[in-house]
Design goal:
By secondary structure, this protein is an alpha/beta fold. The chain is built from 17 helices and 15 strands. It has helices at 3-6, 45-63, 90-98, 102-119, 135-147, 162-168, 179-185, 226-238, 252-267, 298-303, 315-323, 335-357, 368-386, 391-410, 420-437, 445-467, 471-483, and strands at residues 10-13, 18-21, 29-34, 67-72, 151-154, 157-160, 201-206, 222-224, 242-248, 272-278, 281-283, 286-287, 331-333, 486-490, 496-500. The strands form five sheets. It has a four-stranded parallel sheet, sandwiched between helices. A four-stranded antiparallel sheet has the order 5-6-7-8. Strands 12-11-13 form a three-stranded mixed sheet. Strand 1 (10-13) and strand 2 (18-21) form a beta hairpin. The protein is flat and about 75 Å long. It binds zinc ion. The site of zinc ion has 3 residues, from loops.
């Protein structure tokens, strides 16, 4: 029996609003697509949470024995500044401002994105296609939608005819909207005179003379609309119907709604069986946003170099912190919560290091109650993760297991209460749930404590020599540490902190 049969996954499907038993279209295989980043800037934490959510989901499918094809795209053209059909292309705008080629922008921020994903131990997808690599496919489906009467060309741009589509399908099925309300409430946009209805959306846009990114097409020089790229790339690599589509909650409407309409219109069937949306991040209870000045980058969170942060936190601490909430709940950042997470992760991390070295010796006094309890914990890990990927509840079980590990470390004779088989099952479950299912890598905390102590001794010395006005020696301490990758930072009131450069 496969693990996914023993512990079948139930997940909350945004399409139906119900928790459903997951049954893959092809037994044993899972095809999943997640909307990737628009690479016009450094990846922000909100996005990181989305990608962590789907990292957990793809890891757990594999953990239970499914073969997974995970496609996550890179948006390098077509996403306009206004998120609708207006304004400059996000990549093109950044290229113009920085006087670089659009592909230089794409390269820079794709690399940053990959670095951050590695820091958080978010595994790469199986395929990472880019929008500019699929221009031909985007033109082809646009042609097909015109032929089917579901799209129309005006002045070199092509728009999807939402009203026409809605005659035979439900536009708004995912987000619970209906076309009448949408037609009432839609914004009035400049290009509205081109569109038959303001709810129509662009499949292809004519490029204005100043637009840098452009391709020849049957409708003149232009570029693809934002929504069509995901339809094209998911269909190409996963088929016309696939198991799971994910993304941040902010993408549900209009982006994912448009994906459903395009694919259903072109292929005559609904593209996705299960939709999953991850919730947003807040900071001290407020929505995280650049304009409120409360958004920070992952690198600022690691270094503590931000006015809202008391100190820096390791990537695994932040990963653990995010996993303490279910992906469908909002997640609030505060110094208190991060400090608590740091303590919590340390406990699990220490237990991870301990259990790896713990060997079972004898089973002279096997106690069936103890064994039952141990096996119950093992079972709970699977039950909780199979219940809509509930990382929060799984971590609660891992804490109980960590307490058990600590008991064994301090009282080795108690190990004899479990048979070697039961002990091994416990040991492999703890290690594999930490490292494989949840992706929480062991961090060398004892070394860090030692290093931290040593640097603080040097900081103390440096403070002293500065009070003695021996600035030459003070500078030497700073420069010598810098040479080995440790940067001292002088703060207010003579306080000093340090940062380890990567
Ligand atoms: Zn998308």
């Amino acid at each position: 029996m496969k693990l996914y049969e023993k512990y079948p996954i139930h997940l909350s499907n945004s399409l139906t609003g119900a928790k459903e038993k997951f049954e893959s279209i092809h037994p044993g295989f899972v095809g999943m697509y997640v909307c990737g980043p628009t690479v016009n800037n450094y990846v922000h934490l909100g996005n990181t949470r989305t990608f962590l959510t789907f990292d957990i989901i793809s890891r757990y499918f594999r953990f239970l024995g499914y073969k997974v094809r995970y496609v996550r795209n890179i948006t390098d053209v077509g996403h306009l500044v206004g998120d609708a059909d207006e304004g400059e292309d996000k990549i093109g705008k950044k290229a113009r401002l920085e006087q670089l080629e659009p592909m230089e922008i794409v390269k820079r921020y794709t690399e940053d994105f990959h670095t951050v994903m590695r820091q958080f131990n978010i595994l790469p997808p199986s395929i990472e296609p880019s929008a500019t690599g699929h221009i031909v496919e985007q033109m082809n489906i646009t042609k097909k939608l015109i032929e089917l009467g579901l799209a129309y060309e005006v002045n070199g741009s092509v728009y999807f005819d939402v009203k026409k589509y809605n005659q035979s399908h439900h536009y708004g099925i995912l987000s619970g909207r209906n076309i009448e309300d949408l037609m009432e409430s839609g914004r009035d946009l400049d290009s509205q005179d081109e569109k038959r209805e303001k709810i129509d959306f662009a499949l292809w846009k004519k490029a204005a003379p100043e637009h840098i990114m452009r391709w020849p097409s049957p409708w003149g020089e232009g570029f693809p609309g934002w929504h069509i790229e995901c339809t094209v790339m998911s269909t190409k690599y996963l088929g016309e119907t696939f198991d799971l589509h994910g993304g941040g909650m902010d993408l549900k409407f209009p982006h994912h709604e448009c994906e459903i309409a395009q694919a259903t219109g072109a292929n005559g069937k609904s593209p996705v069986k299960y939709w999953i949306h991850s919730n947003m991040l807040t900071v001290n209870g407020q929505k995280m946003s650049k304009s409120l000045g409360n958004s920070f980058l992952p690198s600022e969170l690691f270094s503590g170099n931000h006015k809202l942060l008391e100190k820096g936190y390791s990537p695994m601490t932040v990963r653990f912190f995010m996993l303490q909430s279910h992906y469908s709940s909002t997640l609030d950042f505060s110094n208190e919560a991060l400090n608590a997470a740091e303590k919590g992760f340390k406990k699990l991390n220490n237990a991870l290091a301990s259990i790896k070295t713990l060997e079972h010796t004898s089973s002279t006094s096997v106690n069936s109650e103890v064994e039952k309890n141990i096996l119950g914990l093992v079972d709970s890990c699977y039950q909780n993760m199979s219940d809509d990927f509930n990382t929060a509840k799984t971590l609660a079980v891992l804490f109980e297991m960590a307490s058990q590990i600590n008991t064994w470390i301090s009282q080795k004779e108690l190990l004899a209460q479990a048979s070697p088989e039961v002990f091994e099952k416990f040991k492999t479950t703890y290690i594999s749930f930490m490292e494989d299912a949840l992706g929480l890598k062991e961090e060398a905390t004892s070394n860090n404590d030692l290093l931290d102590g040593t640097i603080n001794v040097l900081i103390g010395l440096r403070k002293k020599v500065r009070t003695d006005k021996n600035f030459a020696l003070s500078d030497k301490i700073r420069d010598d540490l810098k040479a080995i990758g440790i940067q001292l930072k002088d703060g207010k009131d003579g306080e000093m902190s340090y940062e380890i450069e990567n």
